[in-house]
Amino acid sequence: MGDIKIGQGIVDLQNKIGLKDDFFKNLLNEDDWSFVIKLHALIEAIMTSLLVFHFNEKKLTQIFSRLEMSNKATGKLAFLKETGLLGDDNLKYIYNLSELRNKFVHNVENCNIKLIKFVESLDKNQLKNFATFMRPSESVVRNIVKMGHDENLDKDLIRQSEIKSLIDFAIKEPKTHIWLGAYSLLVSISDTFYYSDYLQSIKAKELFDDDRKIFE
Fold it and tell me: How far lies 172's CA from each of 4, 64, 112, 202, in Å?
């Protein structure tokens, strides 16, 4: 992939949880098992940071950190979905990464597993899901094309977002495929901190207006 430059938003996210600027970038140099485990740990720590930030209560850090990542009823994903902090495409990425991580970590024999072999073991439907769910930003592009609003989109971007292109790339470069999906997820999360501020400002205004009505 040549010399990769990581956006400042992702650098800031890493700094929030005490990691060096190049942690995410260097994941591409890890063996496949370590890559999946460390990427999942990175995203999970950032999810905890986001939830603590959103609820504006540092005392909740230990509680949020102990929650399962992918439990859709009581885990971090449940909070992220109900608060509207992340969209469905990003939530699908996190859930599927957690599923992949669980497959890797719960069997010690998988420490030598190769992602290419894992992808080869998938049936047609599983492969399609892996290729599409692990690239959330491309799902957005396909939706824009589907709605007919793609006149200003780069043609190469449209082509690489097509399901066949994603499947072909996922088969050949599964680690890079997952990493690129994580990149777009982390960019979204970086923006979500600002969105959380916006939601909190609206809530504060509503509370102020309610209090003012009491005294009118």
Answer: 19, 36, 19, 46
Judge whether 2 lies within some domain. no
* 98 assigned to some structural domain: yes
Of 172, 177, 138, 188, residue with least CA distance to 28: 177
Using one digit for the tens of pLDDT, what is the confidence trace for 117-143? 999 999 999 999 999 999 999 998 998
- Ranges of beta strands (E only) in the chain are none
Which pTM value belongs to this model?
0.87
The confidence score (pLDDT) of residue 208 equals 43
Residues 6+ apart with CB under 8 A from 95: 70, 72, 77, 133
Q: Report yes or no on 80 lying in a domain.
A: yes
Distance set, CA 39 to CA 74, 159, 180, 206 (Å): 22, 27, 12, 38
CA distances (Å), origin 97, targets 38, 102, 135? 11, 9, 11
How many other CB atoms are found less than 10 A from the CB of residue 58? Answer: 9
Tell me, yes or no, whether 3 lies in a domain.
no
| Domain count of the fold of the chain | 1
State the CB neighbour count (10 A cutoff) for residue 99: 13
For 139, the enclosing helix (H) or strand (E) is helix 136-146
Q: Please state the separation of Cα 124 from the chain's center in Å.
A: 24
The DSSP code for 200 is H
Domain that holds residue 88: 8-211
